[in-house]
Every structure is written in C-alpha cells, then in structure tokens.
Specification:
The chain has helices at 7-15, 41-53, 74-83, 96-100, 126-135, 153-160, 172-183, 188-200, 211-218, 222-242, 246-270, 310-313, 315-320, 325-331, 339-360, 383-394, and strands at residues 32-34, 58-61, 66-69, 87-90, 93-94, 143-146, 164-169, 278-282, 295-300, 361-371, 374-376, 379-381, 396-405, 415-423. Helix 7 (172-183) crosses helix 10 (222-242), helix 10 crosses helix 11 (246-270) and helix 15 runs parallel beside helix 16 (383-394). A seven-stranded mixed sheet has the order 8-7-6-9-10-14-13, sandwiched between helices. It is built from 16 helices and 14 strands. The longest helix has 25 residues, at 246-270. The chain folds into three domains: 7-100, no CATH class; 126-176 and 275-423, Vaccinia Virus protein VP39 (Rossmann fold, 3-Layer(aba) Sandwich); 182-270, no CATH class.
C-alpha cells in the first residue's frame, strides 16, 4: 500500500514537474485540509455538502482552509480518505484523490490520468463529479447513469470510486473517448508493444492510407485499436486547431497517452482501487434502453448545443470516423432548426430526456443536472429556469441549487447551476 505520509509521494514529486496545485505540506494539528486548488465559493460549498453526506459533523477554521471534525472516528476518517474530492489530508494522511491528481502529464489540475485525452469542449471538472457522487449518496457497487456522456469524465471518475456507470451518447466520438479513457489500462502492455512498429511505419499516409493504416486495421484487440485511433484523432485535432505537423504531433500524443495510461494502471495497484464497471454505448437520451427504476443516481450536463456547436467543433474527428455530419445535425439535441425554432426543439428534446431520467431512476434517489443559461442570437436562453420547471413537471423535487461561475466559453456563458433533484418515493 502507498505510504500516505509522503515518503513515496515526495520522491515522485522530484521525478515529475509539479505545479502550484501540488503542495505536499501537512498541517499536523488539522483534522482536514482543503486541496490547494480549491479556490471558489462553490467548491467550498460542495466540500461541505460532501462531508455532510459522508456523515461528518464539522466546523470550518483557519480562513476556510481547514476543518474540525466534531464526531471523528476511524471509520469516518477512512470514508473521507477514500472518497472525498476536495480534501488533501485527513490528519497526517493523504487522501486517495490527492494521490490520484499527482498522476498528471498536463499543466491543468483537472486533467490527471486519462482525463486530458482529446480537447472536448464544455467538459466536466472531475473533482466536482467526485464530490457530487458523494453528495447524492452513491456507494461502491451502485450504478450511476450519464445520458450525455460527452468525453467520459463522469464514467472515469465513477470507475475510480468503485461505482458502476452506464454512459450513453448519440455521438460515436464520445463513446470512443469514454471507452479509451476507462478501458485502455487493462491492455497497456499490448499497446506499448505496438508503439515502435507504428512509429517506424509513420508517414503522412497514416491519415490517408498506407502501412500505418494497415497496422491499425490488423489490430485484433478493439480496445488497443481504439487507443491508436484516438491518438490519430487527437493529432488531426492538433493540426486543425493549432497547425501542428502530423508526424511530430502523433508521436508526442501517443507517448503521452501511453504514459497516462501506465500511470492509471500503476495508481490502481498502488492505492489500491477497486474499480467500478463501465458500460459505454451509443444511445439517445430521449429513448433510453434501460428498465424502469433501475438506476441509483444520475449526474449529467445537457449539451450546450445552442451555445456550443459540438458538430462543427469536432467535425474533423467525426468525419474521420465516417460520420455523416448532415445526418448527425438532424439527430443532435440543440443543433436542429434555426432561430427561435432551434430553442423550441431543444426544449422539447430536453423535456423528453428528463422524462426518461425520471423513468429509469429508482424512487428516493437523486439526479444532478449541471446547466447554465446561454446567449443565443443576442438573447439569454433561460435554460436553468426551463430545467427546474421541466423536472418539477416530471415529479422531481429540487433539493439543492449551487451557483457556479465558469470561464472559457467565449463569453456565451458566465455561470452554471448545479441542480440536485430527488425522485419521490
């Protein structure tokens, strides 16, 4: 088991280039300390909510950075150590999450392990997802449903917590990404064995035929093949967005993907983690192929297609996968229609999706929807209000509304709301 007091981790810190979010100092007189990257009010709110959900009675101390636990026990310490998202230490021990985020090949604190793979727009913060799974009471062996799986963030974080996840998405790119992020660690040795062969035969033909394409097609293991396909798509994205040369970008991306996947396998064994089972499949949130009352929890963020054109943003990858962009536009929620008709179609599609969420969720359990108002054609689309009204119509009760500032969506969205609903018993 990993030495939680830091000897092994401090050695690792010397071997990798860490940045400000990774502070290894321990407050010996503190019951709990927040992670240093927890900087926003909503993060403190989620930290308090997850502590309460784990059974802790507490008070916040030392400038809102430390916590005093009034009912501290060994069992409660264990729960916080293994599950918490926003805490670095419990007493003098590092949390599992703090250990996980050390396995990071990027310069972004939320892109540890395989979370970083592929620049998907509007993705979740995995730390927030981990906290929300605690807040809605998901336990090891429970099943969470993600009807808009996107780049697979919720699926990966559920897996790390030992929670099973069923993720669906109407985009074949999203299912590909989710599977690669969550399943590749199982075949990392086979992936590494093929690396030299692929690189030796690397040429511009990787993108239009030739030896490298033949090597891809000859791969018998679908997970291994998908891994190399994603490395290719990531390189196509780099070329389309940043003008990077194909061969150099492919080798760099492939090496980093392999390193991150190796990190995944190692940390699972070191902590150790009992991983959840992940099922990713093409599906439509408006017609979910799941039994009534079969899901323990739902965490999702509806597509911001009115604000973000997912089809256009990932057109290069979707075309590479053989998708018909015109057909996809007719299927994707939020990109159908024009003007006010687009908003109307979006609302109708989301009403159908929320009805399906209600149907598959077990009574008394929770659905979390992360959503924000967008600006479309110069007008604010009140998606938050629509969502609350729609969910109420379905029979959900809004039990918590956490306001969250966001950055980086080109000024089309300035905030999101984390809406926690409960299905009546």
């Amino acid at each position: 088991m990993t030495d939680r007091k830091g000897k092994i981790m401090l050695k690792r810190a010397e071997d990798v280039q860490n940045f400000w979010a990774y502070d290894f100092n321990i407050k010996k007189d503190s019951d709990l300390t927040l992670l240093d990257n927890a900087q926003f009010i909503y993060e403190l709110s989620l930290a308090e909510l997850e502590l309460g959900a784990l059974g802790a009675e507490f008070e916040v101390t030392n400038g809102l950075r430390e916590f005093k636990i009034r009912n501290r026990t060994k069992e409660l310490d264990k729960q916080i150590l293994h599950r918490a998202a926003y805490f670095k230490t419990v007493g003098e021990l590092y949390t599992d999450y703090f250990q996980l985020i050390q396995k990071n090949r990027t310069r972004s604190v939320n892109q540890y392990l395989t979370h970083w793979i592929y620049p998907y727009k509007g993705k979740f913060h995995p730390q927030m997802i981990r906290a929300l799974m605690n807040i809605i009471g998901l336990k090891k062996g429970d099943t969470v449903f993600e009807p808009f799986s996107g780049s697979g963030t919720a699926a990966l974080e559920a897996q790390l917590m030992g929670i099973n996840c069923i993720g669906i998405d109407i985009s074949p790119l999203c299912i590909l990404l989710g599977n690669v992020k969550t399943q590749s660690y199982r075949y990392i040795e086979e992936i590494e064995k093929l690396k030299d062969l692929v690189i030796e035969n690397l040429s511009p033909s990787i993108f239009n035929g030739g030896k490298t394409k033949d090597i891809f097609e000859s791969m018998q293991n679908d997970v291994v093949k998908d891994f190399y396909i994603v490395a290719k798509l990531l390189t196509i994205s780099d070329n389309a967005r940043r003008g990077r040369k194909f061969e150099q970008a492919f080798v760099k991306n492939l090496n980093r993907m392999i390193d991150s996947t190796r990190d995944f396998k190692e940390i699972v064994e070191e902590i150790p983690l009992d991983l959840g089972k992940i099922e990713m499949k093409l599906g439509d949130s408006r017609k979910v192929e799941l039994p009534d009352n079969s899901i323990d929890g739902i965490i999702t963020s509806p597509p911001y297609s009115i604000a973000l054109d997912y089809v256009e943003n990932d057109a290069h990858s979707l075309e590479e996968l053989g998708s018909d962009l015109t057909k996809i536009r007719e299927e994707f929620i939020g990109v159908r229609g024009n003007g006010q008709n687009r908003v109307t179609l979006y609302n109708n599609d989301m009403r159908a999706s929320y009805a399906e969420m209600y149907r598959v969720l077990k009574p008394g359990r929770f659905a979390v929807i992360v959503v924000g108002n967008a600006t479309y054609q110069g007008k604010e689309v009140k998606t938050v209000e629509f969502t609350i009204n729609f969910m109420d119509d379905m029979g959900f009760e809004l039990v918590k509304n956490v306001h969250k500032l966001i950055f980086g969506l080109y000024n089309i969205m300035k905030s999101e709301n984390i809406l926690i609903f409960k299905k009546s018993n």
